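cache lookup: miss for this entity combination. No prior model stored, computing from scratch. Input as submitted by user K.M.:
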Amino acid sequence: MERQHLVIIGNGMATSRLLDELHSRDANAYQVTVFGDEPGGAYNRIQLSPLLAGNTDRKSIQLKSSLWYKNHGIRLYSNDAIIAIDREQQTVVSQNGLRCRYDQLILATGSRPAKIPAGNQALAGIFDFRTEQDVERILNRSAQSRDALVIGGGLLGLEAADALASKGLNVTLVHRGDWLMNRQLDPQAGELLRAELAQRGIRFVLGDEISHFEGLEQLTGAKLKSGRRLDAQLAIIATGITPNSALARSAGLDCGRGLQVDDLLRSSDERISALGECIEHRGRTFGLVAPIWEQARLLADRLVRGLATPYRDAPVPTKLKVSGINLFSAGEYLDAPQLQSLTLCDSQSGSYRKLLVRDNRLVGAVLYGDVQDGQWYFELMQRQQALGDLLPQLIFGRACCLDDNPDVPDTTATAITQEIAV
Amino acid sequence: MTHNTESSTLTTCPYCGVGCGVEARSLDNRLIAVSGDTSHPANSGRLCVKGSALHETAGTEGRLLYPQIQGQRVNWDTALDKVADTFARLIDQHGPDSVAFYLSGQILTEDYYVANKLMKGFIGSGNVDTNSRLCMSSAVAGQKRAFGSDTVPACYDDLDQADLVLLTGSNAAWAHPILYQRLARAKQARPQMQVVVLDPRRTATCDLADRHLALKPGTDAFLFNGLLSYLAREDALDHAYIDAHCEGFDAALAQAQRQCPDLITTAAHCGLEPADVQWLFERFARTERSLTFYSQGINQSSSGTDKANAIINCHLATGRVGKPGASPFSITGQPNAMGGREVGGLANQLAAHMEFDNPKHLETVAEFWQAPRLATTPGLKAVDLFQAIERGEVKAVWIMGTNPAVSLPDSAQVRRALQQCELVVVSDCVEHTDTTALADVLLPATTWAEKDGTVTNSERRISRQRGFLQAPGEARHDWQILCDVATRLGFGDAFAYRHPADIFQEHARLSGYRNQGSRDFDISALAELSRAQYDALAPIQWPVTETRPEGTARMFADGRFFTPTGRARLLPIEARLPAGQREDGDFVLNTGRSRDQWHTMTRTARSPRLLDHCDEPYVEISQRDAQRLRIRGGDLVSLAALNAEYIGRARISNQQQTGSVFAPIHWNDRYASHGCVDALVAAVTDPVSGQPELKQSPVRLLGLRPRWQGMLLSLDSIDTPASDYWSRVTLAQGERYALAGFTERPDWSDWARSWLPASADLIEMLDSHANHYRAAAFRDGRLLWVFMASCDAELPPPAWLATQLGRTLNSKERMQLLSGRASEGAPDQGAIICSCFQVGEKRIRQAMKGGATSVESLGKVLSCGTNCGSCIPELRALIEHA
């Protein structure tokens, strides 16, 4: 009997993970075809910043070589985007004119950089920071630039700024928020981060936005809403991501901010499923890998084994290493009148911790510097553990609390057990 | 003089009245170790915890090193001129009684002798008194009334030989540990020995006792009156002895019978079970070798002298005085209380056990000293003296080696007196005490380990104290300072001593001068000691005379006493209750020593080890009272009386009677905000001895509910912490403070910065609800202080934090520091490689050693690299470079 045909649109990290999950269950369950709009096999997009900084190379960040797809009997069409889905014919149509029939279709089209409302964005020298090709173009431009502008004070913008600064450029980062990473960090941690990166030579303009870019063909600078003007021959826009749902939308699938999927990750067409940054599940979109890995696992279970385990969106702590600085943030992170906050701050070494407590329960943690206890705090939040006398000691971490509190969950012990079970 | 080899010196311990021999080893002018002197009869090589820690208290930190006038350093001449000129002017204008000396049972016999000679013989006033007044003056008065002399009949050997030992008003286990242990060994060797403790408290001493009779506070004289009356009823008296050697028996017995006609009445007076009283009385009646060992619990009373005589009455009536294992035995608190008495160091003594009321004695002393204006009437006793100072009658006082602002009753009055006194001279070895704070002139004195002389212990044994360290700064010996002032007053010829041996010789000569057996104190056989012989003097018990050159173990075995008739006197004693009026709800405050502290802590608080035993002022409370007042162990409680307040930690104790509390005497303004317990004690004294009633004062007890409690460890000493309550403890490095606030919770961060040593390098833990605050400060990277406060949770134990003071911490240790505990529990796993699973380099290297040598296998073991995969290049690099 001929195998069912599984077509996957998009060849990013979600697809790479899904292929591994499918293959680990049954290599021959489907005839698999993958379309990707970038050249070559999947690579680790998270490693683009080290690639920009020159701390790694393209080979090292490759997740799957062309040979891998061949060896695993997967047809890969790279550098070729799908432009239409014919749901009645169960067929997809590529930019290059390829038509391909599917029994099951997976959309893993990812996301694209968010737009900013600045004028004059078509000038040469203004880049997104999303793909290997972006990195290549930025590197070419940086060789002939003195001043660089990075727009966006989130993780990606900071990584880009640090990478450019390490190449000797004068880097100014412009961020709309009042402090860096204002979606993950509280003002104090954001300020510590700013101070540390400022020591590496990066300048920061906070609470401001680009009004318009300046230059004729080539970028020469930017005017800010505050009226301030900055020289720049190179600009990177890294203000966030937007799900890529245009293709789905044009195919008539239900879309909100992203392609809407149910708990089994099915779109409004039951032959079409989706995962990753392109989807919207119960109103939520995704940007971190952990939930996407979970989606890949459940999707593979359903496609191969027929298991219908619903996807549940679990809270995820943000564990980041920004340019070598460790950060952790989970749950609430801003002070509020009804919250009790405990902070521990070492002005000298720039270490910082904040815990937020409501009704004697931990509801948020922000760690800067030493983040080893992050997972444990996250666990306490999940368990809704009553804190009691533990409170003043809690901020010093697991080891300090375990010594004389046998009731406190020792999550590392659990983790070790799990590791052994693997 | 430089010491560069280790040397060993035999000397005497400076603490209690047991007078143990100590072998001190020093190197490079530092005391490095102490051990018991095996050749000393008082202790045969044993030392208690305080004595064994002497080397930890001998540092020069905190010493008074230079003379000061009004806090300004001056040279010796200026300081001595100031003292002598002021004394001379005041004596000239207001007479000799306008000046006074207040001495200490800590200074040596030679110092005492010179002070007494100067004041009584040359200035012409009896105003020499001493802190021994607070310790054993009632025992002295009792002995003088009974024996006609201030004579302790017994010796320590009697502890080994007694068949019944009554310990009354004595917590020997803590206050005289070496004697207690000797008793314990004796009892072990001779299990038939019975030990009975009479004490309202169930003290540590009771561990040894066959029976503890927890009598009502202050009722000891009722019990001994009851005993005398019982002995008469049961025909257990030694009538032959009474007839041959005593007088006053009939009156004494009649009075005892009137007050305590039978067991039931006696037991009722004392709050005891009649059966227990009967048991005790029967024992005493039939045990020839009965020893009554008594101390401050008897003496520190408004009827202390009567209590002493009530005890002695029973011993005289049974002929049990000065016989092996059978005597009344008063044990003194201080190392040289008896030495001070020998020279006349109390205001109501003249010199060498001679008395003001004996014209022959006055003549003898005047002649011997060639004294131009010998005082002929007694001077002011301690409490009276400080009251006279406040009234302006005494205008200059010279305090030597003691801390009356803490140790006298009604310390607020004492402080008022000193504040308004025209000239307060304090010679001391310690710079900052509650008393030196009130001084106009400070004179730096040498201390134990630096000075030479003699002390006399509780069994009349004279021992040499030998100096082996150089005096620091410009410190001088007390006798030298006194001679310098005497010379400036124009008495140079009579005070031209060049060495303590010169003084001792003169003292010994005076003791034998015109004596011929008429006075108990006679050490004339030692009057011709050469300086070398003096230095080599072995411990010896007085009297030491031509006929008894080896000294005298026991006195009065022959039944001859020093009264005019040669007979011992029994006194009719009307037992009285403590003077303090208790109102409804008042508690009886008992005060005393804690095991490992000494007096006002100037020495013992320098040893962290000695503070381990108890490190804060405390109040012992009975279980029932604590329950009633909802006080838990460790709670702060307040004792209040006389407009003064004492604050300490509650110790719920089954040692304490309901309605009674106990508080230690040691703490003071230097070591606690409200630690001066004697401030609660009214200045009520025994009419005969002048000894204040420090044992049974009415106080109000209140459990405190602090708004917050905290602790501070600091390298720098903080003069006055900015909290409502504080107490201080010395650490090996730096100091530790317990703190509490009773009113508003402060605005922590600003408040801490306002009084703690300033530093820009701070770690802070803040709580938006302000229930907790913790902070640490660093100076040049070294931990300067740690402060922790909490409104509702317990603070971490301080021991580990204390070890961190002065250390340079790495960034991880800095973040752990405020947890208050070692962070060994949190394995340092090195730089985080995998952020997703928080896996550090050290853990990865460990796993690699364990065989995980690929990215995949590391992922299986540690999960690293299995989430976002960003760390895989680093993992690979680690594997490649392994």
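stored under new cache key. Chain A has three domains: 4-112+241-305, 126-237, 318-421.
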